[in-house]
């Protein structure tokens, strides 16, 4: 599998590193640390029992056994497993060792929306433990999670996106997830979901698109349009996240043409002018790679008034990397056309 999440690019003898997976902070992307607190209505007696419980050796096997019982018992057991695994890493190990993963994966295919949601959420919480990721993937979780991403409740979709993100952190899963049909659904979630859904979708797409074939899939699925729209809306709190994803996609030529076609150039120039320092650097990086493609794109960027804010960026207090990229882009735009 070809991956190039940290690949750089060269211009005029300078090598510029793109923002890699390790460059983004928790403020840029959703951590997908666990499901939403208070997501399920929980009887007070059950709450007290779970708070007092230390997940004893007999409790967890009992819950696992209930996963193969009636629908109501399955719902109760999945909900309790979700709560037990929400914050305690040691419980995630115990639950997996007790054999919960395969029956929980089966619940994700349930026609009962609530049971499916509970199964997705429990799998998400178990996937937070690195030791469980391979077992979850090998238990056939990817396809049911993709179906939940397509047909589940809003919460099931969000948590399925998070679970797929966690599984995609194993390099060998990225291509399998991409080929499963997840990427168009994540793009749709990015476009139409609520704020949490957009965060979760952008994070999952960022992780998956370190694989080249997934970048092409994302562009073919229309990812550039929602990225441009989110970057144009400074109030969306999605400018950084969208710019990270767009920057990662620039290594495939299809993405550059798509950015131009979707009206991304004026949006990127506006970010260079009015964005935060990090946003400015990402916008310059994207514009530089677009302008390397063809003189037509350079003319377009220059006509959008990019040079004055680029000059200001080279003179303002920013990072050395941002100034170098701005200087390289200025030189490129000033070449005879």
From TrEMBL:
Keyword set includes Transferase: yes
Domain U-box: residue ranges: 68-334
Enzyme Commission number, as recorded: 2.3.2.27
InterPro entries referenced in this protein's UniProt entry, alphabetically: ARM-like, ARM-type_fold, ARM_PUB, Armadillo
Reactions listed under catalytic activity: S-ubiquitinyl-[E2 ubiquitin-conjugating enzyme]-L-cysteine + [acceptor protein]-L-lysine = [E2 ubiquitin-conjugating enzyme]-L-cysteine + N(6)-ubiquitinyl-[acceptor protein]-L-lysine
GO MF: ubiquitin protein ligase activity
Pfam families hit by this protein: ARM_PUB (PF25598)
Biological processes annotated in GO: protein ubiquitination
ARM repeats mapped onto the chain: 99-141
Bilayer-crossing regions: none
Pathway: Protein modification; protein ubiquitination
Keyword entries, A-Z: Repeat, Transferase, Ubl conjugation pathway
Function: Functions as an E3 ubiquitin ligase.
Protein name per the record: RING-type E3 ubiquitin transferase
Species the sequence originates in: Brassica carinata
